[in-house]
Amino acid sequence: MNTISDLAFFVTLIKQGSLAAVAREMGVTPPVVTKHLASLEQRLGVRLLNRTTRRMSLTHEGEVYFNEAVRILADVEELENTVTQSRAVPKGLLKVNASIGFARQYIGPAISGFAKRYPAVEVQLQVSDRPANLADEAFDIGIRIGTLPDARFFARKIASNRRLLCASPLYLQHREAPATPRDLARHQCIVLRENDAAYGSWRLQQGKKEETVKVGGSLSTNHGEIALGWALDGHGILMRSEWDIAPYLRSGRLSPVLSDWHLPSADVYAVYPERLNMSAKVTAFIDFLCEYFAQYLTREHPEATVW
């Protein structure tokens, strides 16, 4: 087999999780798959997998090969799509999932513009307070903020975004603003209980220093807009995405807290289960989102807001 076929074979093997599963996928016997893997490792001169009777795991070289294989195959497919895309007409049902707040402020208006440009596409937007399983629920695209899913999914960044700490001047005028992350433990913090992640643990970084602080307060919720409202009313310090609080920071209704410390990245991505054989409607929608969010994608300075 040629190099591209070897890359595709290895990516399929890792995603399927076993030699037997990839044999079923390829319609061959397990010994054929074992021989193919051995031949690949012999050609490369390195072991890609550690294998036992019960499990297999990537070696360091295997992890590098897998990650680069995913990237190369995606680039090849994108190249082919670019060449053939002009013949394809976006049409049919497009299912999109996004978080409630971001969907209302940005994705909904973006879809309005997309629908005017591509009237043959029927868009179904489902909003939820936690990310939906794209594959299980048959979504074409999910809009995700922050940490991405595993390598089984592909993603394209559509906007730059930061998480920031902030509080209303109403709250800060009666208390000394925190000077270090540890000071947060002495403050009322508005805790947002999102997804299945551990809540109330805020991780901050300054250069090579990193601190995780367990915060708490009298108010917590799983709804970002409610939490923002409490912060505006002066109930405590809030961690929130830049896309949501930038207007209030500019107006002075919220003030930054510990602005010389950084929080985990919260960039915005369009995520999709497959890149191979992407339909014209999916490609067109992702391209449209990149165009729509172009003004939010780059910063002149690392600390500058784009929102």
Structure, explained:
The protein has nine helices and 14 strands. By secondary structure, it is of the alpha/beta class. It folds into three domains: 82 residues, Arc Repressor Mutant, subunit A (Orthogonal Bundle); 92 residues, Periplasmic binding protein-like II (D-Maltodextrin-Binding Protein, domain 2, 3-Layer(aba) Sandwich), CATH 3.40.190.10; 94 residues, D-Maltodextrin-Binding Protein, domain 2, CATH 3.40.190. The protein has a five-stranded mixed sheet with strand order 4-3-5-14-6, covered by helices on one side. The radius of gyration is 23 Å and the shape is globular.
Helix-and-strand structural type: alpha/beta
* Regions with little confidence, pLDDT below 50 for 5+ residues: none
Order of helices and strands: HHHEEHEHEEEEHEEEEHEHEEH
Coarse shape: globular
Q: Main sheet: which strands, in order across?
A: 4-3-5-14-6
Largest sheet: 5 strands, mixed
CATH topology term of the largest domain: D-Maltodextrin-Binding Protein, domain 2
Number of helices: 9
CATH class of the largest domain: Alpha Beta
As a percent range, the share of strand residues is: 15-25%
Mean pLDDT, nearest integer?
Answer: 88
Total separate domains: 3
State the helical fraction: 25-40%
Radius of gyration: 23 Å
Question: What is the straight-line distance between the termini?
Answer: 49 Å
What's the CATH architecture name of the largest domain? 3-Layer(aba) Sandwich
DSSP, total strands: 14
